[in-house]
C-alpha cells in the first residue's frame, strides 16, 4: 500500500512538472509588446490571410484572359434505341407507302474524347475585372494597416492598464502599512484610556476600505494582464512580465511637439479606405458601361469518337475517328429596353454617394484631430494639476496625522484627510494613464 502511494505521488509530481515545463515566459517593453502583437495577434493573423486571399483572387481574375484547356471523356451505352418513323417504301419500293416502318440509328456503345482550347480575345468586363482585383488587394492591405493601428492603440491601453494596477497595488500597500501602524498605536492609546474607542473604530473602517480596494485592484490586475496576453496572441496559461514603469512611460509620452504636427488627411488610413471605396464605385460604373461593348472569343476543338455494338474500345483494332474545328464568337449587345442604361445610372449614383461619404469622412477626421489634440493637451495639464494636488494632500494628511496623534483633531478629520490623499494618489495614476492613451489616439489619427 505504501509503495502504491509513493508511486501515485511520483506520477502526480511528474504530471505537474510536465505541465509547468509546457508554460512559456515572456518579457516585454511597450515597443516589444507592440511588435509581438503585430505578428501574433489573432485579428492581424486573419488580416494577413485576407491579403493572401486578395492576391489569389487577383491571379484568378487574371487567368480568365489567359488560354484555357479543358478535356472530356464520355461513354454512352444505349440499351434501348430511340426509334424514328419512316414510310415503308422508303427502303423497300414494293412496300405499302401508307405503312410506317420504325428504324433505330446508332450503335450500342459510343466513346468520345475531346480537348478544347479557348481564348478570350476581348471583353470589356474582363479589363475592368483586372482593375477591380488590384483595388480589392489594396483594400485588403489598407484593412490590415487599419487593424495594425487599432491593435497598437489597444496594446498601449492594455499595457498602461497593467502598469496602473501595479502602481495602485504598491501605493495601496504603502498606505496599508502606514494605516496599520497608526491603528496599532491608537489601540495602545485607547487601552490606556487616553482616547475614545470611536477613534479606533474609525481607523478600522478606513483600513477595511483599503483592504477591499487592494483586493479589487489585485483581481483587476489579473484581468488586465490576461487581456494583454489575448492581444499579444499568447495563451493565458503562459507568464508575461512588463519591463517598463508607469512613470517612465508617462514621461516618454509627454511630447508637446506632436501638438504642432500638421494633419494630412491623405495619410490617414480611414481616409485611404474611403478613397478605396470611391475607386471601387468608379470601377462599377466602368463595368456597367463595358457591358455595352461586344465580346470576342475563340476556341479550337480536337477529339476522337468510336462506335461499336460491343464494348471494344480498349482493343487494339478498335477504329477511332478524329475530328477538329476552330471557331470564333462575337457577342454584340444590341437592345436591352434601357436596362443597361439604368444600371449605369445606378452605378453613377452609388459613386456620387461614396464621394459625399468621403467628403464627410474628411471633415470628421479633421474634427477628430482637433479633439485628439485638445484631449492630449488637457491630459498633460491634468497630470500637472494632479501632481500639485497630491503634494497638497500629502501635506494635509501629514499634518492631520500629527494632530491626531497629539489629540488635537478627531479621527473623522484624519479619515477625511486620508481619503483625500488616496483619491489624489489615484488621480495622479489615472492622469498618467490618460497621457499615454491620449497620445496613442492622436498618433493613430496622424498616422
Structure, described:
- Helix 3 runs antiparallel to helix 4 (124-191).
- 65% of the residues lie in helices and 15% in strands.
- By secondary structure, it is of the alpha+beta class.
- It contains nine helices and eight strands.
- The mean pLDDT is 90.
- The strands form three sheets. A four-stranded antiparallel beta sheet has the order 2-5-7-8, with no helix packed on it.
- The protein has helices at 2-22, 30-40, 42-63, 124-191, 197-232, 246-252, 269-290, 339-405, 411-446, and strands at residues 25-28, 68-77, 83-87, 100-104, 109-122, 239-242, 295-308, 321-331.
- It folds into two domains: 23-64 and 123-293 and 339-446, Outer membrane efflux proteins (OEP) (Up-down Bundle); 72-122 and 297-332.
